[in-house]
Amino acid sequence: MPEARAEYRTPKTRHRHMSKSQLDSGLRVFVYRRMIRTGRCPTVADMAKAFKSSTKTILSTLSRLSESHAFLQQENGELWRVAPFSAIPTPFPVTIGNRSWFGNCIWDALGIPAMLSKDARIDASCGCCNLAMPVEICKGKLLATRGIIHIAVPACEWYKDVAFT
Fold first, then answer.
1. Spatial distance between the Cα atoms of 47 and 39, rounded to a whole number of angstroms
2. CA–CA separation, 62 vs 57, rounded Å?
3. CB–CB of 41/74 below 8 Å?
4. pLDDT surpasses 60 at 3
5. What's the mean pLDDT in 22-27?
6. Three state DSSP letters for the chain
């Protein structure tokens, strides 16, 4: 997805004139563009206001979008994952120029510079001893010549417990 320079403009019609598919697509684009532009995820209230919609409709749409695991909701309905971005602070901060985001894990953190086609620094640290383990990406490649990225859970089991994975 290209870097967004302007806020996603919702359709001129109210959400009730949109199909579920149109609302799903529109909300997905709105959330990603806001996340890329600001480094923060819009709240359910922000989405409802932008789409001139009820929070119930937005929550229902987010629930549908969460079925693919690209979006994941907190218990209160707010988003905590907008893959590869985390909507909440994590130990995987990603810095590109003077802007920053969080990944939910090292895999997602590596996905942010890949998605944006930008050089980046990921200030990761060891999960057991907190030793700083920064990772730099330049022109799509890791600069480190040594190191290990340990993923303890097989990929086929990642979505059984995403918070642990």
1. 16
2. 9
3. no
4. no
5. 93
6. CCCCCCCCCCCCCCHHHCCHHHHHHHHHHHHHHHHHHHCCCCCHHHHHHHCCCCHHHHHHHHHHHHCCCCEEECCCCCEEEECCEECCCCCCEEEECCEEEEECCHHHHHHHHHHHCCCEEEEEECCCCCCEEEEEEECCEECCCCCCCCCCCCHHHHHHCCCCC
How high is the pLDDT of residue 51? 93
pTM (2 decimals)?
A: 0.81
**pLDDT for res 21:** 84
Give the list of residues 6+ apart from residue 115 with CB closer than 8 angstroms, or none.
Answer: 1, 84
In the chain the domains, ranked by start, together with CATH numbers, are 15-82 (1.10.10.10), 86-160 (3.15.10.60)
What are 162's two structure tokens? Answer: 């995403």
